[in-house]
Design goal:
This protein is α/β, with parallel strands linked by helices. The protein has ten helices and five strands. The chain is globular, with a radius of gyration of 18 Å.
Length: 229
């Protein structure tokens, strides 16, 4: 690799000069503080190795040898006992890719586990720049159109998904929608999320959010549709 730099818990490695992406390096350093403040979490000090590639060819060659299950994906997060690892190459959505995969790494530093749908929903939310998180995701317009054609929220169906193969485009969209609702919707929704996240480190199994939200918000389906519309 051409350059290596340590910034806090991050170990950046790139096959190009990191000066070319200095703003992105700074932004990722701030992402941890942002996630901790937004979700009431505290990340541990386990390092996050961020390996950056100048193009798709160099990235694909590396991934094919080191993480073959990731072939075909533009960016990756790989959990590890010693460190989390993020891989990405420079393309049009490079910064979005990095924020998405680094969100996974930070969540897994803060929590012993994260349910798949919530892990992906959080990553979809935090992948946008700070000033674009509320209304800058393409999922917002997609859900608004889906609602016009009769979309009905089904959090229990998302909770039942356990593999990435089950997470199609609609599932990512819907996971984003539920995260957006819990962070920007009624206070009861945020309370349910905060309780869920706070329970995970205790070793007790948290109440499913589909159950907790319904208990707190009896007209849940109408409220989330109203929020997303």
């Amino acid at each position: 690799m051409a350059e290596e730099r340590v910034v806090g818990n991050y170990v950046f490695e790139a096959d190009f000069s990191l000066r070319d992406v200095s703003g992105t390096v700074v932004e990722l350093s701030e992402l941890q503080k942002d996630i901790e403040a937004t979700l009431g979490l505290k990340c541990n000090e386990k390092p996050i190795h961020v390996r950056l590639f100048r193009n798709r060819w160099s990235y694909s060659n590396y991934v094919r040898n080191e993480v073959p299950e990731g072939v075909g994906r533009p960016a990756l997060f790989v959990a590890g006992a010693d460190a989390g690892r993020v891989y990405a190459y420079r393309r049009l959505d490079f910064e979005v890719d990095l924020r998405h995969e680094t969100t996974h790494a930070l969540l897994h530093n803060a929590l012993p586990y994260v349910p798949l749908w919530l892990d992906e929903g959080m990553a979809e939310y935090f992948e946008r720049a700070v000033n674009r998180r509320f209304d800058g995701s393409p999922h917002r317009r997609s859900l608004q159109w889906a609602i016009r054609f009769g979309w009905q929220p089904n959090l229990a169906a998302l909770e039942a998904k356990t593999t990435l193969a089950e997470m199609d485009g609609d599932a990512y969209r819907d996971a984003w929608g539920w995260v957006h609702f819990m962070l920007h919707g009624p206070p009861e929704a945020r309370e349910a999320l905060e309780e869920f996240l706070a329970t995970i480190p205790t070793g007790r199994e948290p109440e499913a959010l589909s159950v907790s939200l319904q208990r707190r918000i009896p007209d849940l389906e109408q409220r989330i549709i109203q929020h997303l519309r």
